[in-house]
Amino acid sequence: MQNIKTVYEHIRGNNIKTFLLVALFPVIFIVLIFLFVWAVAPLSQAVETTMAVAIPTVLVCFVWMLISWAFGDSMILSANNAIQITAENAEYRDVLRSVENVALAAGLPMPRVYIINDNGLNAFATGRTPNDASVALTRGIIKKLNRLELEGVIAHEMAHIGNRDIRLDMMIITGVGVTVFVADILWRSAMYGNFSDENNDNKTNMGAVLMMVALALSVFNLIITPLLRMAISRNREYAADATGAFITRNPHALASALSKISENSCLNRCKSNKSMDAIYIAEPVKERALFADAFATHPPVQKRIARLESMSL
Fold this sequence. Notes:
mainly alpha; four-stranded mixed sheet; 9 helices
């Protein structure tokens, strides 16, 4: 007998998984630095070095997050050449009406609506808060989907807005950028710095310590962070699917939309800039690679469709 979960169970389960995945970021970050330094230094120095790296990194992350918070959404829209539409654009009045209806059903303010001039089928949402959010749709998705399917896609994007997924992704991207920057500084310091142990034989060579910290950060940035970030991204897509289905009370329409989107979700402009793949409803660039599922920004479409088809409202 098929196990049918309610939308509430899907949303709650996905939120718990997201919380655990986000919590792993600082835990793994601190543990990696400590273990790598401890391999070449006494316990007390390993603890001291870990705190000396972790605290400034957190402070820099906080400052950079404020900058991203202020300008991130406008940069994303500009990078995608998104054009805002209003009621004066007669061609898109039905689209605006659909967005307005979904926003009312979701209990959220009407977002700004943008069009991306691309025949690929895709969409994304951005914005710091629900009060200044935006939804962007490609021309392809507007032409290909019927009204109920398009409203399902819009509801998915409104779910990202309501669930604060945009803010979460900005925080993760910012944190990753800062740790990469810190790792680069430490590598340069370890390689070109002039460290000497001659005055104190009891201390471990500072160059070796810095090298181990830089190595720990590199492992974190190149292996741990991509795995965690992609896992969070996939989990938030499941959550947005469930929340979108709850908003429209029609999970089958979103499932049908995803089926059509999967046939042609690729966008030409994203081939040269893959950093924003996670914001779209489906991956805008499809590539086959080793461990592709682990590093994918989205769950397999068939799994998303199966979950939607099995949902009970």
